[in-house]
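This protein record is not my work; I was only asked to verify it. The record follows directly below this note.
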Amino acid sequence: MGENNSKTIYQALWNSADILRSKMDANEYKNYLLGLIFYKYLSDKLLYSASELLEEKAADLEKAQQNYTEAFNDPETREDLIDNLKFDFSYALEPNLTFTALVQEIHKGKFQLEDLAQGFRNIEQSSELFENLFEDVDLYSKRLGATPQKQNQTISAVMKELASLDIAHEGDTLGDAYEYLIGQFASDSGKKAGEFYTPQPVSTLMTRIVLEGKQNQKGFSVYDPTMGSGSLLLNAKKFSNESGTINYFGQELNTSTYNLARMNMILHGVDIANQYLHNADTLDADWPTEEPTNFDGVLMNPPYSAKWSAEKGFLDDPRFSTYGVLAPKSKADFAFLLHGYYHLKESGVMAIVLPHGVLFRGAAEGKIRKILLENGAIDAVVGLPSNIFFNTSIPTTVIILKKNRDTKDVLFIDASNNFTKGKNQNILEPSHIDKILEVYLQRKEVEKYAHVATFDEIIENDFNLNIPRYVDTFEEEDPILLAEVAKEIKELDKQIDEANSVLNEMFKELRGTTPEAQAELNGLLQLFGMQGGDFGE
């Protein structure tokens, strides 16, 4: 995929967003844009595959549409073609409902929103896989326009912009562009973005740690019980040499975001057989409870300090029962952490992003942290810079957990000062990620950056894991030499005297044009300690 093609995709996607941006906020318009892109992707894939099945050449979508329409209208070919398409893709569309056909109707001025709505319904009803997938795309919303005609015009404009993309042939470029858009929506959505997106640099760091040494493992299983749009899960695809064999397990509470993750998986070419996604409350009821229940990698960016029920019954829940106490009602951070850790294989690695409070808060959280440390569960604590997430400016920490470690020491890395300042967010560059990863893998001491704390040190600190207790980043200021300061003051005084002298000479040249103006000028000169003259002197 050439760079120019990528730019064209990004530009067309962004132009489409522009059409909607003036009408609603990003959290709403993302549903329209991502839904329409997904519908076009399914439609284009169907058309090209139909031409292949018919052994007809199709250089472009127009020709593929023509081939499909002719075969569909021929009673001899229709049934076999539709059966084959449904077998391959689990869906089929009537020729007049494909994205290409609808855009042709737009150009003729005959497009009806109801046809697009019918296309959505046909996809949703064709398989459990697509059930309710387009439920957030409200084609009759007043936000699109006050009248049906205006709504029609808005959707038509977006579809015409997207029509230029041949996205069925774009492969991972489309998936990457989709990720880019989700990131842009997150940026525009501000606080709401935390519900569905983890910035790519943070995802990259966590995924590389979790996959380290297992890049060639076939059938690697990765689990994210707070998956959002699935971007954290999908990073595993980038860093595995056996990406086609990865099994993705994810759960999401928000139905809209869950649908977004389903689309994201399909657009990234993840086989249906490798997707295990669930729409439910992770803490409320455990999932998955049927094999497999433990995973090679656990990746999590849960909502920070969310509220949860913390009902006493959870003390009997195997996820939490070992610890004797529950995460407090007002802060579910440790409930999420323990849920993920419970589902980690004995040989697995878990990475979770949380606010720093989990490192030092007392009461129930202190007890949970102590048991985890006594079990050697906490492998490393990485302090990230502040303001790198869309939904919060607070500094966060990535905690790495393992099972069956032969040591109880903890590696502390303070990467809070390693970032590039961006317009709205601070940015973790690849060089910053590489440095964290290198130190993590070598588990080495780096002055003012990293320290391996023994279990005895942790006991001495009462199981408090606050990073500054272990990594001293204090920088002494350079000593001030008084003689040099005095010399600088003397030089500045000299410069001030010279400037005043030049100013005095300039003031002497000034004359008032009237007696009143001269009186005003004299008053100003007296402020500067100079003698004023008389009018006309």
In short: The two ends are 82 Å apart (CA to CA). The mean pLDDT is 87.
